[in-house]
Amino acid sequence: MMRVTGRIWRAATVESTDVALTDVPTIVADADRLLWLDLTDPDDAAVTALAGALGIDASAVEDALGSHERVQLHRYAHYWSVIAYSATMDRDAAAQGHESRLVRSPVSAFVLPRALITIHDGGFDPATLAERWDDGQEDLALGVGTLLHAFLDVLVDGHFETLQVLDEVVDNTEDIVFSGKVDQNSFPQAIHQVRSELAELRRIVLPMREVVAAIQRHRLIAGELAAGRQVSPLLAHAALAPDAGPGGDTVVISPGLDPLFDDLYDHVLRATEWTDSLRDLVSSVFETNLSLQDARLNQVMKKLAGWAAVIAVPTAITGWFGQNIPYWGFGAISGLVASIVLIVGLSGGLYLILRHYDWI
User: Fold this and answer.
1) Residue-level pLDDT at 136
2) Helix or strand or coil: residue 292?
3) 214 and 338 in one domain?
4) pLDDT tens digit string along 256-291?
5) 3-state DSSP call for residue 326?
6) Could you tell me if 224 and 349 lie in one domain?
7) Domain with 346 in it
8) DSSP alpha helix (H) spans, the chain
9) Closest to 148 in 3D by CA, of 13, 43, 253
10) Of the ranges 29-43, 163-177, 234-248, 294-308, which one carries the lowest mean pLDDT score?
11) 317 and 282 share a domain?
């Protein structure tokens, strides 16, 4: 069942936390208000009806309600459409035998000139957003860009937490490999699982760089145009939305948010680099384990060869003295003594030599 939560601000002060879907078009049209609306486990018909009332295209609604869309940002005449994913890890499962499990949940958002509408299933906690805005209400005076930044920042923070869990898993794996206590039956499967989770996480984290970069380009070029500077038409078309919709409204990111979006872009880059470094590290751990296995096998084979050489000496001597034809010392105590002396002397000498060269 769809759950509706939200906030209405007027002059950066909370006016109401009770938002009805039927009131959304009126609230959005009020230039003095700012709205955040969250739809959890959305009802397709209700979302479609709301989108129609707000002038949101059917194709954008279809993408927002889909579960297998790629991370992206689309700019329309009077709104933006953002599709992203939250990522979480079961820390307890990750700590037990590398049984880490990545949980990815699609989160979509419509960014209007004075509203942010988030749509998702139960995998994303909207309370995190509410807490963020309660702690920094002064930034809400800067408009919808504050809501968009908080939304993206919460997602990226979740990516960092997931990467931290995976980093701990990889560190534990390294310790196990170098301790020599690897269960070779389950180790390849565990490594493959972590590598697959990192690959899946990378498909979430990497495109976020383009989403934030598109916002950065929009802000920079909009600032250049506002200052009256010349901008290439091709560059302006790529960075800015089409002409504004009815009433001339379009999404504007306040220049006062530049430091926040710059910091967000830096976080996205760090998350991307961390993901790539962990993937390389997992491959290195796997290859290191194979190398250590080969080294241990060589050590075992070397010791077996050394002991085989030592055992060959008494075998050869007893074989000689065990012949059923006359030889020196045949049928005499001196032959027994000679064989024992030769076995002990030659075997002991060969053992000491091989021991000196660390063969046994």
Assistant:
1) 60
2) helix
3) no
4) 888 899 999 999 999 999 999 998 888 888 787 777
5) coil
6) no
7) 295-356
8) 24-29, 44-54, 58-65, 91-94, 127-135, 144-179, 187-226, 233-239, 258-321, 333-356
9) 253
10) 234-248
11) no
Beta bridge partners of 16: 8
Q: Which residue has the tokens 């001196």?
A: 334
On the question of pLDDT at 107 being above 60, the answer is yes
Would you say residue 110 has pLDDT above 60? yes
Q: Looking at the structure, do residues 38 and 166 belong to the same domain, yes or no?
A: yes
Residues 216, 135 share a domain: yes
User: Residue 314: pLDDT above 90?
Assistant: no
Q: Over range 80-103, report the average pLDDT.
A: 72
Q: How far apart are CA 204 and CA 221, in angstroms?
A: 27
Burial of residue 112 (CB within 10 Å: 0-12, 13-18, 19+) is: buried
Among the candidates 273, 293, 313, a domain finishes at: 293
Same domain, yes or no: 271 and 300? no
Nearest to 267 by CA among 303, 213, 197: 213
- What global pTM score does this model have? 0.77
Assess contact for 25 and 117: CB atoms under 8 A. no
- Total domains in the chain come to 2
Which residue, of 243, 274, 293, is where some domain finishes? 293
What CATH code is carried by the domain that includes residue 228? 3.30.460.20
Contact 57, 245 (CB under 8 A): no
